[in-house]
């Protein structure tokens, strides 16, 4: 099974107004895909439908072979927790839990004993020595690295990253992109990243371009200089 398959996915918020035209998209395992496009083109809508946070008006979404429309809300919530990793523009760490506890949280919520998995995930993002710290003690870039560890700790079928570098300075952004790249190259993870930043997209294997809800182009091995905003 592919990590993600979208087959004719559309989303209509108001009758007759399509935020997404039929989208056909396959993301094989072990791929780092960037989705680019101007504000309002439907990037968030695409991500939300693909990640089971929103139900498409038509079409099917499959994550690792599981068709999302076949799941009730409880099963969908469970699939999101166990088989999808999320990284958002803001890190959304729980400020009252330690860094290590934040990373362990997806496992605990799934009823799993974390063992040392959360500690290994933290070490993999270069923060093995900060597990006892509280999130407010960390920089924004460090918090986003913790968020990456939290997204990877369940070894999900796919990681969705929505403008993961949007709130970071260039150096911190590069660190986060390096981690996503490593997750794909070293651990076989699959990443779909929404970004408007050509420098961020240049770290992906492939960039897709969305305009007014339609996929209008794709570029293998994108280079920042070739990507027009
Ligand atoms: P992007 O993430 O690329 O900025 P969005 O997916 O947020 O684009 O929006 C795509 C289109 O759908 C826009 O025209 C937006 O106004 C519209 N839209 C998004 N969310 C809603 C909503 N909840 N209700 C109505 N229209 C929406
Ligand atoms: P420049 O044209 O100045 O080399 P780039 O857009 O190529 O700028 O890259 C900006 C930064 O991001 C550089 O530090 C570069 O090493 C890094 N970078 C860009 N794309 C990739 C990539 N696909 N893999 C690794 N590093 C990348």
From TrEMBL:
PANTHER family: ABC TRANSPORTER RELATED, IMPORT ATP-BINDING PROTEIN. The keyword Transport applies. GO terms for molecular function: ATP binding. The keyword Membrane does not apply. SMART domains: AAA. Keywords: ATP-binding, Nucleotide-binding, Transport. InterPro entries: AAA+_ATPase (IPR003593), ABC_transporter-like_ATP-bd (IPR003439), ABC_transporter-like_CS (IPR017871), ABC_transpr_LolD-like (IPR015854), MacB-like_ATP-bd (IPR017911). Pfam families: ABC_tran. Residues 4-229 form the ABC transporter domain. This is ABC transporter ATP-binding protein. The lineage of its organism: Bacteria, Bacillati, Actinomycetota, Actinomycetes, Kitasatosporales. It comes from the Bacteria.
């Amino acid at each position: 099974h592919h990590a993600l398959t979208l087959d004719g996915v559309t989303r209509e918020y108001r009758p007759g107004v399509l935020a997404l035209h039929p989208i056909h998209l396959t993301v094989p395992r072990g791929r780092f895909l960037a989705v680019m496009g101007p504000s309002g083109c439907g990037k968030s809508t695409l991500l939300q439908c693909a990640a089971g946070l929103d139900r498409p008006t038509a079409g099917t979404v499959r994550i690792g072979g599981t068709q999302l429309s076949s799941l009730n809300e409880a099963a969908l919530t469970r699939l999101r927790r166990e088989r999808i990793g999320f990284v958002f523009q803001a890190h959304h760490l729980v400020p009252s839990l330690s860094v290590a506890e934040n990373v362990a949280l997806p496992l605990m919520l799934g009823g799993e004993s974390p063992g040392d998995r959360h500690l290994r995930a933290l070490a993999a993002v270069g923060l093995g020595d900060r597990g006892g710290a509280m999130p407010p003690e960390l920089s924004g870039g460090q918090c986003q690295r913790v968020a990456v560890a939290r997204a990877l700790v369940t070894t999900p079928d796919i990681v969705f990253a929505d403008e993961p570098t949007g709130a970071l300075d260039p150096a911190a952004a590069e660190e986060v992109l390096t981690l996503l790249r490593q997750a794909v190259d070293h651990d076989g993870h699959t990443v779909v990243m929404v970004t408007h930043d050509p420098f961020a997209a240049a770290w992906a294997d492939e960039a897709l371009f969305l305009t007014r809800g339609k996929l209008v182009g794709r570029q293998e091995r994108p280079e920042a200089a070739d990507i027009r905003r």
